Structures are given as C-alpha cells and as structure tokens.
Amino acid sequence: MASTGKFYDYTHIAPPIKMFVVAGGTAGDHTITGITTDDKLIGVSSIYATGAQLSTVGLTAGNLFSEFSITGSNTINNDSGTDTTGAMLLVLYADYNA
To answer: Global pTM?
Structure first.
C-alpha cells in the first residue's frame, strides 16, 4: 500500500469505527455528518419498525452496503438504489481523519 502521509500509514493503530443513524429516504444523497472521502464505509443497513405499541413492534432490517459509496464530505449516495423512506439507516465507517 502506498503511503498517504497520514498517521495511520505508520502505525498499527486502527482508525476509529463510527456509527451514524439517519432517516432513510429516496435513493440518492444522504447526509452523514463528519464522513469524508478519506473514510471507508464498513456497512449500511436499513431498519424498519412497525407497530403502534412497544409490545407489538416488528423490526425488518436489510443490508444495503453494496449500494452505497462516499461521494463527498458529509455525503453517502445510493443513486438508483433502494428507496428507504420510512426506515432508519445505520451507517458504520472507519474514520481515517480522527
């Protein structure tokens, strides 16, 4: 691996793993505050909850990692991907700028 001149190139210390939860929406850009193009996505899941009371809530989760990429500062994108309106997106990424 070529050096990028960053601290993690010269250590065996792994970058921090961060988790962000954001409301889903139509396919396209989703705001993840703090993520940059230097970071690496680890996982994106959609979580749907149904039911009016806590005792009757049903959860459905989906793995959407292959649909998403980091396209700019504070932005991930899944153009032409799954519409996640009504869901929450759970985003995990390695923060190489921490």
So the answer is: 0.78
